[in-house]
Structures are given as C-alpha cells and as structure tokens.
Specification:
Blueprint (H helix, E strand, L loop, with lengths): L25 H12 L10 H15 L6 E4 L9 E6 L6 E7 L18 E3 L2 E3 L7 H16 L7 E7 L10 H8 L8 E4 L4 E3 L5 E10 L1 E10 L3 E2 L8 H13 L9 H14 L1 H12 L4 H8 L2 H7 L2 E9 L5 E2 L2 E10 L5 H12 L5 E5 L12 H14 L5 E6 L5 H6 L4 E3 L4 E2 L12 E3 H20 L1
Length: 463
C-alpha cells in the first residue's frame, strides 16, 4: 500500500528546490522501471513470477550468482514468486530493502490509457503500479545492480526482497512466506519499506517529508443475522435485513475512543504550524491533551486525521436473502476495520457487540490478524534521513507518521525486524490515486525519490 497522504493547507516553502546533477544511469533506471511496470502482476490476469524472473536477469547481468540472488516461489502458487538478493558486507549486520511488485486489478476499458503501458505525459508517469509500489521496487533493483557493478563494499550487508501478495488476501504474502520459510534472506537489523513519502502543497511545493513508524492492522469483520425466513406473502417484524440495517445504523453513529500513539502525537505537534487555522490550533491542542474532546471533534471532520486518531470500522459489503419471494434467512455485512496498535481483534469485536447492542447480530472475525508494535526512530535511522533531506529539501520538516492503511511492514515488525516507511517521493494530496483509475506519479518525484533512497542506503551501508 502507498504512502497515505494527508489533506493539508497550502503553505509557503521556505527552502530552495533541490537541484543537482541527475544520478548516473538514469536512462537505464527508467528502462527497468518501464519493464517492471509493464509486466502485469495483478491477481486476475498477471504473474509476479514473470516479473521477478525478468528482474533477476538484471541482477545476473550485474554479477549476482545463484548464491546471492534467487527467485523463490511458494508451493502451489506458481504466479506468486518473490525475488531476493544480497550484497554482502564486511560485518554481520544487514539492512533490508523491501518493496512489493504485485498490483491491484486494472481493466483497460475503465482507464484513459492502457494500465499496463507506461505513459509519460504532462510531467507524470501513468500506469497501474507506477506509484504503488513498483516505483520503489525499481529504485531498489537498479541500486543493487549499480552497487554491484561499481564493486561497492558495504560494511552492513544489503538485502533486497521484491515480493508478491501484499495487495490481496487471495495470494501468498511474499514477505510473510520468506520470514517463515527462508528467513536468512530477510533477516536484518531493520528494513526500508513503502508507507511514507513527501507532501506537496496544491501549488506543488514541498511541505513535509514523512517517515512511517508503525501502522494500523487491517482486520475484516462481519455482522451476521440468521433467521428462519419464510414466505414473503407473510411478512413478520423479525426480518434479518431489517435487524442488520438497525445494527449498521448504530455502527454509523459509533466512534471508537481517541488514542494518540507517540508517533501521531508528534505528527499533530509538528503539523500544527504548517496547517494553521482552526485545524492547526486543534492539532496543537490535541497534542498537548489527547483528551481534548473539542479539538478531536474538529480534526475528526477530516477523514485522514480521524483515521490516525482512533480505530475505525466501516461497512464495505452487503449480502442478504436467497430469493425475491422469500423472507431472508441470512443477512451479512462486511466491515473493514483499521485497528490501532496495542489492540486485539477480540477487543474490537467486543466493542462492536456492545455498540450494536443486539445479541442476534453476531460479530465475526475474518482471518484474524495480529497488530505490530511501532519501531523506534533512533539516531541510527534518522541521521541519514536528516542529512539527505537537508541537502535535497532544505527547510522542509521531517514528520513521523503512522499509516492508517497496512503494509507488509507488519510481518517484519512482528518478526522483530524494525521496519520504516520512507521513499522521498513527493505528491499532492490524493493525486497518485493508487488502487484507483489512472494511477500516476510525478516524474520529478520518482527521480528525486531515487536520489534520496540511494543516499540513505549508501549511508546505512557504511554504518
């Protein structure tokens, strides 16, 4: 899932735009990016295995042996392949560069352009996966190629994992599979992943560079009502659809309590002077006192801010009845819950049951998921970020975030590998439209992100 962008007020940019000579071999990088984007890796019509085999060719050409680069395909999932590689350092320590290469389905008839043809137009790259997440995947693959070719000798080993199965639950999740079955390829002191980029104002000026430390867990829940049913010519008050509708109405009026993690508290604290106005004042007030109900109410009007303040559950699907001329025997609503760190699915289940207040509405947990703990933003992590950001975007603040979405970082965090979201790829609120129609990324943002990631990775490698 791509960096979650928050709606922000326009603000003046205090520093000069980053300017330097383009990184070397930009044309080759673009070629790798184009090749990767144009290989369909969607669940319905594509293959991750085809994509990672194509990327392995570049690693082999750069000199990576079978010992140092492999495609790993889960059993009984021939299209869910993953690519792993290692550039060995002089110490036993390692950093993992991780990106997923699977994408959400895209139908040609819905798009203005072919979703699996990279189109550069009006300063943007358009294609499915152009932003989420083949941009970072191409950056990391290209970097591993160039480091090998220049005979770079890191102190800290660099590991690469381009994985499948992040976007959908009907594929084998690559990073989870690797952790469980091939941990030696992903074991590291920490990992760099998607999850945060940079924010632009509506006038295109950099506002903030985000670093993700922690994320909600996506837990699917169901509300189910069962009933004997009967003939529709003899309606009765106890109708499964009506009962479920009442439960959903109660859910629509229910808010989980406000809870600020250290990361979200810092986010509001640092964003307050940038956003300004009533929202900025509310941010500052809530950062000072997370129990300030008035401040929380102001911020809750914005779905993005509301999402990072509390657990949320929203109805996304309905299924009911079995015949047009029969009373419904079953009615089911699917809920998409984004659960704050520190809470279990069972706690959310109990809260929903209480809010609905109807014992005939069963709250179910679908494919139970455990949340992860947020990693610490240590000097080891932040030092290279701060130095690179100061050079590339002077005066732009670095603001930690907790994403309301979910990434593969949860698997690594739970496995004891601290995982941070950072890309250095800036965008205006909502413009990338990842998962939606006509997904895009700014050409300049992609290349700047490439420079940013290369700079911090080289510094991490020398630690």
């Amino acid at each position: 899932m791509r960096a979650f962008l928050f709606a922000l007020a326009i603000t003046a940019f205090s520093g000069a735009a980053f300017a330097q000579e383009p990184a070397p071999d930009r044309a080759r990088f673009r070629s790798i990016y184009e090749e990767l984007v144009e290989i369909d890796t969607s669940p319905s019509t594509g293959s991750c295995t085809r994509a990672v085999n194509a990327m392995l060719v570049h690693l082999r050409a750069a000199g990576y042996s079978e010992r140092d680069a492999q495609v790993i395909i889960p059993e009984n999932a021939p299209d869910d392949g993953n690519l792993v590689a290692v550039l060995r350092g002089s110490s036993s320590r390692a950093v993992l560069l991780m990106a997923h290469i699977d994408v959400v389905d895209a139908r040609r008839e819905d798009w203005e352009r072919d979703p699996f043809t990279l189109v550069e137009e009006n300063g943007y790259f358009y294609a499915r996966g152009s932003a989420d997440d083949k941009a970072m995947a191409a950056v990391f693959l290209d970097l591993m190629v160039r480091l090998r070719q220049e005979n770079f000798r890191p102190r800290r080993t660099l590991k690469l994992a381009l994985t499948c199965g992040e976007e959908t639950s009907n594929r084998v999740n690559g990073i989870d599979y690797l952790v469980r079955n091939h941990r030696q390829w992903v074991q590291a002191d920490f990992a760099i992943n998607e999850g945060a980029g940079g924010m632009l104002s509506t006038s295109g000026q950099p506002i903030a560079l985000n670093i993700q430390a922690g994320e909600k867990i996506h837990q699917v829940m169901t509300l189910t009502v069962t009933n004997p049913g009967g003939h529709s010519s003899r309606p009765v008050p106890d109708n499964a659809i009506y009962r479920l509708s009442t439960a959903l109405e109660r859910l629509s009026q229910y808010n989980f309590p406000v809870e600020l993690t250290p990361v979200t508290r810092t986010f509001f604290e640092r964003m307050a002077p940038i956003v300004g106005g009533a929202s900025g004042e509310a941010m500052a007030a809530l950062a000072r006192n997370p129990r300030d109900a008035d401040a929380a109410a102001i911020l809750a009007r914005d779905p993005s801010y509301n999402a990072i303040m509390r657990t949320t559950c929203v109805a996304t699907q309905l299924e009911a009845g079995h015949a047009a001329n029969a009373l419904p025997q079953r009615a089911v609503a699917t809920l998409s819950c984004r659960v704050l760190q520190g809470h279990t699915p069972e706690e959310v289940q109990a809260a929903l049951q209480t809010a609905i207040g109807d014992p005939q509405v069963e709250v179910g947990i679908v494919r139970r998921r455990d949340g992860s703990s947020p990693p610490r933003l240590t000097r080891q992590i932040m030092g290279p970020v701060e130095r690179t950001a100061a050079r590339m975007w002077p005066g732009v603040p670095i603001i930690p975030t907790m994403t309301p979405g979910a990434t593969d970082g949860r698997f690594l965090n739970n496995a004891g590998i601290p995982t941070y979201g950072m890309s250095g790829m800036f965008s205006a609120p909502g413009e990338s439209n990842a998962h939606g129609l006509n997904e895009k990324i700014r050409v300049r943002s992609l290349y700047e992100g490439r420079d940013f990631l290369e700079s911090i990775v080289r510094e991490y490698a020398r630690q």
